[in-house]
TrEMBL record:
Residues 19-139 form the N-terminal domain. It comes from Larkinella bovis. It comes from the Bacteria. This is ArdC family protein. Residues 168-293 form the Polyvalent protein metallopeptidase domain.
Length: 309
C-alpha cells in the first residue's frame, strides 16, 4: 500500500540500498555475458533442469515476475535446484519446515512506491510518487527439510515431435490476431505492423520456430497502439536497438516458460551479447527496466487469449 511520507531532502540511506541492488544484479549478469552466457537461458542449458520449462514459483504456485525470474533462474542453475518453488524462512516455518544446516538464501527484490510531500517556493504542498526497491531473502524448496512432498517434485519433461506443429502453440499465437506471414527472415516490421517468419520447415525443430516467433511477438507489442515502448532507436545496431532486442529476448524466454517449451539461442546472439554488455555497463538499472518491459509484453500477449486457453 502506498503511504504518504513528508520529506525535505531526496538523499536517503534507502537510495544507497537501491543502488547496491542494481549494481549487484547487473554485475552478476555482466559477468555471465562476458563469459558468453545468457543467464536467463541457463536453466535450459543445464542437465539438472532438463524437465519442463517453468517459471520460478512462490509457495502458493504464483509465479515470480520480472527481474526476480532472472535472479531465481540463475540461482537454480548455479546450485542445481530442480524444484521450481521458492519461499521465505517464515513461510517455510509456518509449514513446519526447517532450513538445512549451512544453506544460504537468495536475495530478490520487491518494488513499491511512497508519496513524498514537499513545499514549493510559494508555500504550496505538492505530492509525488517515489518508487523504491526492497531486498528480501528466499530459499529453494531443496534447501528445506519437512516440506510437503509436492514442493520437491521435478517438473515432468515435455516430449514433442520436433518436426510437427504444436496445435496448442499454434492456437495461442493465432489468438493474438497478429499478422504473421511467411518470408525469408524473422522480423517485425512496424511500418506495416506485420511479423515475417521463415517457413516452418526451415527450422531444425518446431520449438526453435516457436521460440523465434515468441521473440518477434514481443517486438510486436512495442507499437504506440499497444505498449508504446520506445528506446529511441535511430539506426540498426545502436543503443536503442540493443535495448529493444534485450527486452524481446527476455520476453521470449518468459513466454516460452509460461507455455512450457525451450527457446533456443540463435546464431546472432554472440553479436547481441556485445551490444548488451555496453548497454548494461552504461546503465546499471536497465536490466531491471528490460525485465519489467518484457514482463509487460508477455502479460499483454496473454491478455489476448480467450478464456478457454
Amino acid at each position: 500500500m502506498t503511504k504518504p511520507i513528508t520529506r525535505k531532502t531526496a538523499s536517503t540511506p534507502a537510495g544507497q540500498v537501491q543502488q547496491d541492488i542494481y549494481a549487484r544484479v547487473t554485475a552478476k549478469i555482466l559477468a555471465d555475458l562476458e563469459q558468453g552466457n545468457l543467464s536467463w537461458r541457463k536453466p535450459w542449458n543445464s542437465e539438472h533442469l532438463a524437465g519442463q520449462v517453468i517459471r520460478p514459483l512462490r509457495w502458493n504456485d504464483i509465479p515470480y515476475t520480472g527481474i526476480n525470474t532472472l535472479i531465481l533462474w540463475n540461482a537454480a542453475s548455479e546450485q542445481s535446484f530442480t524444484s521450481p518453488y521458492w519461499m521465505t524462512f517464515k513461510q517455510a516455518t509456518e509449514m513446519k519446515a526447517n532450513v538445512r544446516k549451512g544453506e544460504k538464501g537468495t536475495q530478490i527484490v520487491y518494488a513499491d512506491k511512497f508519496t513524498r510531500e514537499e513545499e514549493d517556493a510559494n508555500g504550496e504542498v505538492k505530492s509525488s510518487q517515489i518508487p523504491f526497491l526492497k531486498c528480501y531473502t528466499v530459499f529453494n524448496a531443496a534447501q528445506f527439510e519437512g516440506l510437503f512432498d509436492g514442493f520437491y517434485k521435478t517438473p515432468e519433461p515435455v516430449v514433442a515431435h520436433q518436426q510437427e506443429r504444436d496445435p496448442k502453440l499454434e492456437t495461442f499465437f493465432a489468438q493474438t490476431k497478429a499478422d504473421i506471414y511467411t518470408g525469408s527472415k524473422a522480423c517485425y516490421i512496424q511500418a506495416t505492423d506485420r511479423i515475417q517468419m521463415p517457413p516452418f520447415e526451415s527450422f531444425e525443430t518446431a520449438m526453435r520456430y516457436y521460440g523465434v516467433l515468441a521473440h518477434e511477438m514481443c517486438h510486436w507489442t512495442k507499437t504506440p497502439a499497444r505498449l508504446n515502448r520506445d528506446f529511441g532507436k535511430k539506426r540498426y545496431g545502436d543503443e536503442g536497438y540493443s535495448k529493444e532486442e534485450l527486452v524481446a529476448e527476455l520476453g521470449a524466454c518468459f513466454l516460452a516458460a509460461d507455455l512450457g517449451f525451450e527457446p533456443q539461442p540463435e546464431t546472432h546472439h554472440a553479436a547481441y551479447i556485445q551490444s548488451w554488455l555496453q548497454v548494461l555497463n552504461n546503465d546499471k538499472r536497465f536490466i531491471f527496466q528490460a525485465a519489467s518491459h518484457a514482463q509487460k509484453a508477455v502479460e499483454y500477449i496473454h491478455a489476448l487469449q480467450s478464456p478457454r486457453l
